[in-house]
Design goal:
Layout: H1 6-44, H2 50-63, H3 65-86, H4 89-95, H5 100-142, E1 151-154, E2 157-162, E3 165-169, E4 173-185, E5 188-200, E6 206-217, H6 232-238, H7 242-270, H8 275-300, H9 303-321
Antiparallel strand pairs: 1-2, 2-3, 3-4, 4-5, 5-6
Helix pairs in contact: 1-2, 1-3, 1-5, 2-5, 3-5, 3-7, 3-8, 5-7, 6-7, 7-8, 7-9, 8-9
Length: 325
C-alpha cells in the first residue's frame, strides 16, 4: 500500500498523536486535579476521613477534565506532529507527494474524536464531578463532631462546645443550644439546633427556640447550586440569566471549536514554527478567549460570543487545510 494512501496516513496520525495526547491528558488531570483537591481541602477547613478524601480526590480529577481534555488534545496534536517532523517521517511523506491538506484530512477522525470526547466531558462528566465535589465537601463538614473545648470554623461560623452546650457565632450573631447535629445540604451544611437562643451582637434582636435549622454556606458555594454543577437537562430547564445560558451553549460550542483547533495545532506541529509557540499559542489563545467571552456573555448573552468562537474555528480550519507550506 503506498505511503500516501488514506489508511496509512490515518494509522500514522493515530500512532503519533494518540500517545502524546494520552500522556498530556494524564499530566493535565494530575496537575489540575491536585490543584482543585488542595483548594477544596483549604476552603472546607476540616480534614476528611479516608473515604471522603478518596471521594474528594476522584471528584477533583473529574472536575479537571473540562480543562485538561481540550488542552491535552491541542498539545498532543502539536507534539505528535512535531515528532513526525523531527523523525523525518513528514519529510518522507512530502517526497511522496503528501501535503498538509492530505495530512489534515487523515487527522480529521482524530480531531472529531477529540471534539466528541470533549462534549461528553462538558455535558455529562464535568457537571457530575463538580456536584460530587460539592457534596463531598458538605459531607466532610457534616461528619465533624465538635468536642469539648475545641473551636471549629464552619464556613463563616465559629462553633465551640463547653459544658455540654454548643456556642456559635458568625461575627454578627451569637447563640447557644443544648442539642445539635450537622447534616449535608445542597450548597453547604445545616446545623440543627435544639433548645437554645440566638441574638445579635448589639442585643437589638434575640430569639429563643426549641428547634432551629441554621444553614451554613461553605466557601465557594455562593449559597446555591452553581450552573456548572447542573447537568445539561437540568440546566436547560433552569437557565434564565445570560451567563447561565452561556454555560449551556458553551458545552456544545467549545467541543465543536476543538475540532478545527486540533487540526490547526497539527499543522503548526509540522511547520517550522517553535514548538513552544505552537502549543502555548493554542492553549493560551483558547483559554484567554474563553475567559474574555465569559465576561461578555454575562452581559449580552451567549449568541455573539458563540458566533465569535465559531468564526475563529472556521479560520483555524481554513488555515489547517491550506496546502501552502
Amino acid at each position: 500500500m503506498p505511503a500516501s494512501s488514506s489508511p496509512f496516513l490515518s494509522r500514522l496520525v493515530w500512532a503519533s498523536l494518540g500517545p502524546a495526547t494520552g500522556a498530556t491528558l494524564a499530566l493535565g488531570l494530575l496537575i489540575a486535579g491536585l490543584g482543585l483537591l488542595a483548594q477544596a481541602l483549604v476552603t472546607t477547613g476540616v480534614s476528611p476521613g479516608p473515604g471522603l478524601f478518596v471521594q474528594l480526590a476522584l471528584a477533583s480529577l473529574g472536575s479537571a477534565g473540562a480543562v485538561a481534555w481540550p488542552l491535552a488534545a491541542l498539545a498532543g496534536a502539536a507534539l505528535g506532529a512535531r515528532r513526525l517532523r523531527d523523525e523525518g517521517a513528514w519529510l518522507a511523506l512530502q517526497s511522496l507527494g503528501v501535503g498538509p491538506r492530505a495530512l489534515t484530512r487523515a487527522a480529521l477522525p482524530f480531531a472529531l474524536c477529540a471534539g466528541a470526547g470533549s462534549g461528553v466531558v462538558t455535558h455529562l462528566a464535568e457537571p457530575a464531578a463538580r456536584a460530587g465535589l460539592r457534596d463531598s465537601r458538605a459531607a466532610t463538614v457534616a461528619a465533624v463532631e465538635p468536642r469539648e473545648g475545641q473551636t471549629l470554623q464552619l464556613g463563616p461560623w465559629s462553633v465551640a462546645v463547653q459544658d455540654e452546650r454548643i456556642y456559635f457565632t458568625d461575627g454578627g450573631r451569637a447563640g447557644e443550644a443544648e442539642g445539635w447535629a450537622l447534616r449535608p445540604a445542597a450548597a453547604g451544611v445545616v446545623m440543627e439546633l435544639e433548645a437554645g437562643r440566638i441574638e445579635a451582637w448589639d442585643r437589638s434582636t434575640s430569639l429563643s427556640f426549641e428547634r432551629l435549622s441554621l444553614p451554613i454556606r461553605l466557601p465557594g458555594t455562593e449559597g446555591r447550586i452553581a450552573p456548572a454543577e447542573r447537568g445539561t437537562p437540568d440546566l436547560w430547564r433552569r437557565a434564565h440569566s445570560p451567563y447561565e445560558r452561556w454555560i449551556l451553549w458553551k458545552r456544545t460550542v467549545l467541543p465543536t471549536l476543538l475540532v478545527p483547533l486540533v487540526l490547526a495545532s497539527l499543522r503548526g506541529g509540522v511547520s517550522s514554527w517553535p514548538l513552544g509557540g505552537v502549543v502555548g499559542g493554542g492553549v493560551l489563545g483558547l483559554w484567554g478567549s474563553v475567559r474574555l467571552l465569559d465576561q461578555l456573555a454575562g452581559a449580552i448573552g451567549p449568541a455573539l460570543p458563540s458566533a465569535l468562537l465559531l468564526i475563529f474555528g472556521l479560520l483555524a480550519a481554513w488555515w489547517a487545510a491550506r496546502d501552502a507550506a
